[in-house]
Amino acid sequence: MPAEPAPSFPFRAADPVLPPAEYRKLQVERPVCRVTLPTGDLAWLLLRHEDVRDVLADTRFSREAITAPGAPRILPIARGSRSIFVMDPPEHSRLRKLVSKAFSPRRIEALRPRIEDLTRGCLDTMAESGPPADLITCLAQPLPITVICEMLGVPLADVDQFRAWTDIMLGFTPERQAEVLAAKDSLSAYLTELIKDKRRTPTDDLLMVLISAQDEGDRLSEEELVAFGYTLLGAGYHATTASIVHALLTLLRNPARLDDLRRDRGLLPGAVEELLRLSQAGGGIGALRIATEDVKIGDVVIRAGEAVLPSINAANRDDSVFPGPDEVRLSRPRNPHVAFGHGIHHCLGAQLGRIELEVALGSLLARFPDLRLAVAEDELDWSVGLAFSRPDELPLAW
Description:
The protein has helices at 21-29, 49-57, 91-100, 105-109, 112-129, 135-140, 142-152, 159-170, 177-200, 206-212, 222-252, 255-263, 268-278, 312-315, 350-367; strands at 32-36, 42-46, 61-62, 133-134, 214-215, 218-219, 289-291, 295-297, 300-302, 307-310, 372-373, 395-397. It is an alpha+beta fold.
């Protein structure tokens, strides 16, 4: 019997705010299926919530192995790295233990007043520009990039340059590979010098906490510090920017739920979880892993050395876990979404992302109760990068 064809992935959705139609069809017919990645490599795509969670927590599937020469990969620029994002235990465990203190719930919650203050300033700018105003340039970009740069201790004067480098890096397309590598090298060089400066003149910020972090004499190496810096920038800036945009668009499409939030701000925490579940901001790429031994998932045996791609976006719409998976239910009683991952690679900055999204949405609705799109949705131009999905501009009126 001939093998099933391996379709190209990521799938292109007709509507960028909704998942591709292939997800629901494959969840029923082929929940573990072969796909062809942008590099031409093959991977097993997982679409069921149970399978995705299992693989995310299963150490037989290696993140570090994707950096080996000749390994299957999503993007051709994936190379050896000291980033926590592509480490396995015991190195991952060592690094996570060293940095986890910097992301304690108390430390992150203490940032809320500053996030609220920055948001007010962003909305002041938005109000001054007058309708229509672009949500992305007024709030969705400046809020998270400023928060993460302040956390790291990046001088305010350098924030725009940081944003430019990360915009290039996270807006990857195969045609821009040289430009992306140059931006990554520039960012790494900048962070290297910044770390040297902080060693000479200690400061009170996250990067200094990471520089000082130690456990029984163990410290982060220079390479690990730099890698962690640009990992934080990518995850803490671009992911949050895209999440804010997708969340607001989803609410604007569901005016009854938007009205519920306007009337009862106590719904915001649950709304944030539901909007994270529904979000397609991740662009569908996910975090590739390599099987280190033969593992059976469903009816399929994944062979050692084969690539596996757990689809977060598909898992979060699995109707066996989420009744009415495409509905916006602000008070969903059970919401075990995997928007921030699962297992040892669960996002360290998950609580920060939640706070930023909650503050951004709550402040927007309080400041502009009649908020609406200033253009028809089909007039929005969406970015074509593979890492995060969002329109280039989001004009709003009120």
